[in-house]
Write a structure and sequence with these properties.
By secondary structure, the chain is mainly alpha-helical. The chain has 10 helices and no strands.
Length: 218
């Protein structure tokens, strides 16, 4: 326990950094992913094309390269001086934009489980495409995609460690930082693993709670 109790300042800051990246990136991914997922099933060809191009381009690009783009390309283009806050904001954006592709595909799979007749009936009543999606289709789609959606967010939680390679403090920074303080690197890695397992178990508990609350009666 000494590696924890002797470095509480670091662990607190690292855990806070991981949670900021997770919740910030998750919120962005959820909002953008829902929009892109709706575009993927839109009756408008241009919307479908843009959504498909976004998913195929970003999803097939390694996350590290997405981080490189935000860390080394955008600051000069936007004439922004790099700082701690800017690095965190770019890391959140990189994680959110990357994860949004998986959210979009998960949402699209959920939309495809909703009977077409329900959407057609809603359109016959005079609802617009946006109203059909928000009031009829998406509420049902989300109930069917809770497990795969939670898997996406579990992957996002683990992907936050990539930000450590771009000078953003999080649990992925533990080995480098604590080795400089003389801590055993293997012990540090084991503790990082334990913390991530605990966080994933917490997410899994949230998944089961949502499933029990929103499950569809068979």
């Amino acid at each position: 326990m000494g590696v924890i109790t002797d470095n509480l300042d670091f662990w607190g800051e690292a855990l806070r950094g991981t949670l900021v990246l997770f919740f910030g990136g998750g919120l962005l991914a959820l909002i953008l992913g829902i929009i892109v997922g709706a575009m993927r099933v839109s009756p408008v060809p241009i919307a479908r094309a843009v959504g498909t191009a976004y998913v195929n381009t970003i999803r097939n690009t390694p996350l590290t390269l997405v981080f490189f783009g935000f860390a080394f390309t955008l600051p000069p283009l936007l004439d922004i001086r790099s700082s701690g806050g800017v690095q965190v904001a770019f890391a959140v954006a990189a994680l959110g934009i990357y994860t949004a592709t998986y959210v979009a595909e998960t949402v699209r799979s959920g939309i495809n489980t909703v009977p077409v007749g329900q959407a057609e009936a809603a359109r016959a009543l005079g609802l617009t495409f946006g109203q059909v999606m928000s009031l009829v289709v998406l509420p049902q789609a989300f109930r069917s995609v809770i497990p795969p959606m939670m898997s996406v967010f579990i992957a996002l939680l683990k992907n936050t460690t990539v930000a450590a390679g771009f000078s953003v403090m999080n649990l992925g920074s533990a080995r480098d930082w604590l080795s400089e303080r003389g801590e055993n690197q293997l012990v540090v890695i084991i503790w990082v693993m334990v913390i991530f397992v605990a966080l994933v178990l917490l997410l899994s508990w949230g998944q089961r709670s949502l499933e029990n609350r929103w499950k569809v009666a068979r």
